[in-house]
């Protein structure tokens, strides 16, 4: 069964966040399970594309309104990622370094989708299924079913996965002319709140949609940045499948990015050595419990709460706790955290930027990982932390709720709180500090965390069952 995954990100080719991790892993595990999954994404001028060899498998021109865009489909030659990787290259539009935030981003993603469709259409391919991820690929289902250009492919099933329902990629109707000829009686399927909304359109037009955790599926009906009613009425088409993690990339026994490898048996020694490495680098006392936050410094992740929560925790616990923050995002959050670092250099250090190796080291060496997210469709950080014996402290929302049980509850191994508030974070930090003093209990909980199975095997099976439910022959 041939499946194309369409995404703006894919690890290790180009990553900003968790979308890349999922699209870099799910197809690999699907292939191991006997499917034929490939990834199609825009071309970015980055390390991976510079250092690997590609062949041009197709070249043509597509039309974006009255702009004729020459495009090439490049295929990575070795399939070293465990799947076929195709890049859509469009000189001047899809050949830049960054993934997001260009002023013509809407044109970039629209051209990406049109070039993909033109490619499979002109080259007479008939994939068994097209799996679109987030709004960057959200127009594909509509175009497949309602554009006269792609009639041959109109029976192709589409699955749409929502990694982040806050971002819709919406734009005005003035840009309708950029689409190829479509059935104008169907424009309602593009519309939401008076504009063209790719996320909404994908939810309406795909054969079914999925969210990256069961709880998030329900949450979208009351928190989706204006699409609540849509998710309410389309609820029957939705399925919540918890993400897995790539246990080959995230393995404390073999991880090349951590200086001291460890297993559940050697975890006390291994974590201590990694913690010492972090504390040396960030000039912190390794004897104190080390709390961390890794991720985008945005409101969605509760990053705006961190400066006040850290300061108050330092005062309430009389400096008996330390913090390391790794992230990049809203400037005011970055600035507030840097100010905190200057004010409490012995207890708090901050790295503003994106650093994959440092993230691995921190997962391996920290004691606690803070995730005070307001919205968390799945969250991968808590799963990585668990695998490296680092206790997640999470707000009870989305995938965090589905994957972390409070240590005070039966079978629990993490810390959960209800409100995205400074008070709840501080209370959790206090609980963590108390727990940290009980070395034997910590050791037992760490072993328990490392034994949890969040591998892709189960989730891959659930996707396969969904595909099968579309009455496909696998
Ligand atoms: N500064 C930095 N340096 C190094 N590494 C960094 C980093 N900032 C982030 N990362 C890494 O990026 C990834 C973040 O993944 P998440 O799933 O937490 O968030 P994201 O919001 O991007 O993804 C969205 O999609 C995913 C996938 O479905 C959902 O899990 C999630 O809830 C949803 O918001 C992790 O691998 C993390 O280590």
TrEMBL record:
A GO MF term: alpha-1,4-glucan glucosyltransferase (ADP-glucose donor) activity
InterPro entries per the UniProt record, alphabetical: Glyco_trans_1 (IPR001296), GS/SS (IPR011835), Starch_synth_cat_dom (IPR013534)
Keyword Acetylation: no
Binding site for ADP-alpha-D-glucose: 15
Pfam families: Glyco_transf_5 (PF08323), Glycos_transf_1 (PF00534)
Organism this protein belongs to: Mucilaginibacter angelicae
Keywords: Glycogen biosynthesis, Glycosyltransferase, Transferase
Limits of the Glycosyl transferase family domain: 276-413
Role, per record: Synthesizes alpha-1,4-glucan chains using ADP-glucose.
Protein name as catalogued: Glycogen synthase
Gene3D superfamilies attached to this UniProt entry: Glycogen Phosphorylase B (3.40.50.2000)
HAMAP family for this protein: Glycogen_synth
Catalytic reaction list: [(1->4)-alpha-D-glucosyl](n) + ADP-alpha-D-glucose = [(1->4)-alpha-D-glucosyl](n+1) + ADP + H(+)
